[in-house]
Design brief:
Elements (H helix, E strand, L loop, with lengths): L1 H10 L10 E10 L13 E10 L8 E6 L3 E7 L14 H7 L1 E8 H9 L9 E6 L5 H11 L3 E4 L2 H12 L9 H14 L7 E4 L12 H4 L4 E6 L2 H12 L1 H10 L6 H10 L6 H21 L5 E4 H6 L1 H12 L6 H5 L14 H4 L9 H15 L16 E2 L4
Parallel strand pairs: 6-8, 6-9, 7-8, 9-10, 10-11
Antiparallel strand pairs: 1-2, 1-5, 3-4, 4-5
Helix pairs in contact: 5-6, 8-9, 9-11, 11-16
């Protein structure tokens, strides 16, 4: 941080650089490649200011929206030759951008919005977003779409996660669907999906973004949305295997600051009886499921799938998905090939790595605790044997 401050003092932009429809460009001198679960942070780059460039730079293919703050949208230019849209090689967008960054480009909010005003599509009709509870096959889902080559697949772009975090954290003082929040959602999505003549499929970042289900369609009325869930008896142990016991425990403690205020208030009523890390984690996952349940109760049409039904009848699932997303059924063989790919290969999430860890199971007492909490506090019915949600009215199932 001290070295960056010295660089900024010597080489930083002056006042005139912030005027006009310009973007500010910084060369990355050192990339510390440090990741943390809060997402991206340009403080892990040592940057030297290069100068201003025209805002049209953000339209270039290898310039990716990386993050935002209250003043600026932050872009990364990835090195040429990096196939950052190929999620079989680069499954998670924010890791890819960080690993292969060569420049940081910042654009003030008003400049970015003026750039958007010149675009044709403003209703989200070329965007589909997959919401999920995490550890439920969402990367496989994105790979199925990617294999058809009918969409630009954005797998876990961090700006979507930032939206989830900031809107929830501010929900005590600002209504989630306030005009300023909806304007921010619209801006972020359209900046991510910047080619109006192309289609985009966005896989949101696992947990703590579920409340966006209630908001995205209000900002972009023509967006298509999907929801993916899985039996909690598989999801909860999978999170622990991925994170390790200590990090899993720590995250279930701090994550309550990152959920909307109404759920924090519910949590306070039952916190005293949650003596298990799995109980806290189960509550957090129910918080991701509940917004979808509310949308169904309100009569909104939104497809949902369970991981169990997908793997039970792969072809029927793909045909139904293709019909919904207007993908040619002739591309079915390409889609089915995704089931033979380790969608997380090369990452700590890969089957090879996670398969080395011992199997973890929920206790009978933890199972007995989760079901009435889901039913009484959220209206969600969970199947006794595996805690799979059974009363999502628009959840498509294939096979018995």
């Amino acid at each position: 941080v001290v070295l960056q401050n010295v660089f900024n003092l010597i080489y930083g932009p002056n006042e005139t650089d912030f005027k006009g429809n310009k973007a500010l460009c910084y060369d990355i001198k050192i990339n510390f490649r440090f990741y943390h679960l809060g997402g991206n942070n340009v403080n892990f780059f040592l940057k030297k200011y290069r100068g201003t460039v025209d805002v049209s730079v953000i339209d270039e293919e290898n310039v990716i929206l990386y993050d935002y703050n209250p003043q600026e949208f932050i872009y990364i230019r990835v090195r040429k030759g990096v196939a950052h849209r190929d999620i079989t090689k680069h499954p998670i967008a924010f890791f890819t951008a960080h690993n292969h960054a060569e420049q940081v480009i910042t654009v003030r909010h008003n400049v970015a919005k003026e750039w958007l005003r010149r675009r044709k599509l403003t209703d989200g009709s070329n965007i589909c977003i997959l919401h999920s509870i995490g550890r439920c096959g969402s990367t496989l889902f994105a790979n199925i779409i990617s294999q058809t080559k009918q969409f630009n697949v954005l797998s876990e772009p961090f700006p979507i996660t930032r939206l989830g975090f900031t809107l929830a954290q501010n929900s005590e003082t600002t209504p989630m669907d306030s005009p300023e929040n909806l304007d921010l959602i619209r801006t972020v999505f359209l900046l991510l999906c910047k080619k109006e003549d192309e289609r985009y499929f966005i896989k949101s970042t696992v947990t703590l973004t579920g409340h966006l289900i209630n908001l995205v369609h209000k900002a972009l009325p023509q967006v298509k949305e999907l929801f993916l869930h899985r039996a909690l008896t598989n999801v909860l142990p999978s999170f622990q295997k991925l994170l390790g016991t200590l990090r899993f425990y720590g995250l279930t403690r701090i994550a309550f600051d990152l959920i909307p205020m109404k759920y924090r208030n519910i949590w306070k009523k039952i916190e005293a009886e949650t003596d298990s890390v799995y109980k806290r984690a189960a509550f957090l996952i129910l918080v991701q499921m509940h917004p979808y349940y509310l949308e169904c109760q309100a009569g909104r049409t939104m497809r949902a799938y369970s991981f169990e039904s997908i793997v039970r009848n792969k072809e029927a699932f793909c045909r139904d998905l293709f019909s919904y997303l207007d993908i040619n059924q002739k591309l079915l063989p390409q889609a089915l090939s995704a089931f033979s790919i380790d969608s997380q290969e090369g990452l700590p999430l890969s089957k090879k790595i996670l398969g080395q860890y011992p199997k973890v199971v929920l206790s009978d007492e933890e199972r007995r605790w989760v079901r009435p909490v889901a039913q009484n506090l959220f209206g969600i019915e969970l199947r006794q044997e595996d805690l799979l949600a059974t009363n999502f009215p628009q959840s498509y199932t294939f096979g018995n």
